[in-house]
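PT: before anyone asks, these are the final sequences, not the draft ones from last week. 352 residues across everything. Please model them as a single complex and drop the result in this thread when it's through.
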Amino acid sequence: MTDELDTTVYYDDDANSEHITDKTVAVLGYGSQGHAHAQNLDESGVDVVVGLREDSASRDAARADGLRVATATEAAAQADVVSMLVPDTVQPTVYEQVEDELDAGDTLQFAHGFNVHYGQIEPPEEVDVTMIAPKSPGHLVRRNYENDEGTPGLLAVYRNASGEAKQEALAYAKALGCTRAGVVETTFREETETDLFGEQAVLCGGVTELIKMGYETLVDAGYSPEMAYFECLNEMKLIVDLMYEGGLSEMWDSVSYTAEYGGLTRGEMIVDESTRENMEQVLEEVQNGEFAREWITENRAGRPAYRQRRLAEKDHEIEEVGEQLRELFAWADDEQTESNATDDPEKATADD
Ligand code: NAD
Ligand code: MG
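LR: through. Structure below.
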């Protein structure tokens, strides 16, 4: 364990595999996370059963990977640990199918805290509720396990009815390959709220708006769409890769003096104190549950606003320009294509 930063990081030696290898784990869902959890746990010597609908297209895939398949209800009935790895929007429905199979001493395990934190799933008092959230998409969780590298992850205990919830979660993280890379403890609340804020304000929402506005500003001023695309979207990856490797300093060290001076003096004209106020507003709506209520209502209505936004985003000129340029310059590598893979029918068809 390391103890800097007031953070405890758990590694392989901190986990006792016996807390999970003597149990049966039901992995519900065989998508991004589900296939990786099921296969990694299976290869780590855990008894795994995959829970899927009778008509699920993933049944054949799971069987082909050598795994036992049952319905969610049957899988949960056999299991000591039920790992909820269907999409967050579907979890409350699937939970209803397994609720009666959760006995005292069983564990309900998540990879994201949304449904528990916002009260959409309320497990029985005598059941442990834990989270192991790998900080990577599932195909990397699987690949890193096969490479012996491991994937960093978060651990949280929402309810410790058995007295052994954390030990079991650590053992699960070990079987998944996460303690090879390091596991940090958090809470359902912190994981959920920081995750939602991050994707809304910075990663998915903030970055796309910044890119589009930069692109539009150049094109509206008469510059060519190709140049605007390269400058505002394509080069984003190069800059972010540097920050990922060595923080902001490595990025500043790597760009020219002119870029550094220009960025340091002009950046705060773009993201200013009014942006901070907007970020605080976004965070407040995450904290007080307003965003969650909106999204739950939207899902119950069949996602009309989501569909409309999604189509409008695809219609942006930068998408058309990007598609043509990416074809001319073949730099899209396999990894990007793979991480885009989805078996969500709505996403898959809308992408066509
Ligand atoms: P996913 O969309 O990749 O896969 C979900 C799987 O659930 C599908 O493959 C299918 O087997 C099943 N499924 C889909 N619709 C269903 C329905 N209506 N009824 C029953 N089963 C259905 O999901 P995911 O991205 O692996 O997410 C699972 C959990 O992991 C979520 O809580 C998510 O927040 C969390 N998580 C995801 C990632 C990631 O990078 N994808 C990272 C960390 C945590
Ligand atoms: Mg059970």
